[in-house]
Amino acid sequence: MLRTKDKKRVDKKMKKVGSDEIICLDNVSKSYSTGAPALNGINLRVKRGEFVFIVGDSGSGKSTLIKLLLRELTPTEGRIVVNGTDVEKLKRRKVPKFRRNMGVVFQDFRLLKDRNVYENVAFAQRIIQAPTREIRRNVPAILSTVGLAGKYKAKPKQLSGGEQQRVALARALINKPPILLADEPTGNLDPKNSWDIMKLLEQINQNGTTVLIVTHNREIVNAMQKRVITMKKGVIVSDEEKGGYIDED
Amino acid sequence: MRINSFFYTLKQGVTSIFRNKWFSLASIATISACLFLFGLFYAVIVNFQNVVKTAEEGVSVTVFFDEGITEDRIAGIGDMIQKRTEVSKVVYVSADEAWDSFKDEYLGEYSDGFTENPLADSANYEIYMADVSKQAQLVTYLESIDGVREVNKSEVTANTLSGVNMLIGYVSAGIIGILLLVSVFLISNTVTIGISVRKEEIEIMKYIGATDFFVRAPFVVEGIIIGMLGSALPLIVIYFIYNNVVEYVATKFQILNSLLQFLPVHTIFATLIPVSIGMGVGIGFVGSFVTVRKHLRV
Question: I need a labelling partner for B131 at 20 to 30 A (CA). Which of A164, A171, B229, B242 fits?
Answer without folding.
Answer: B242
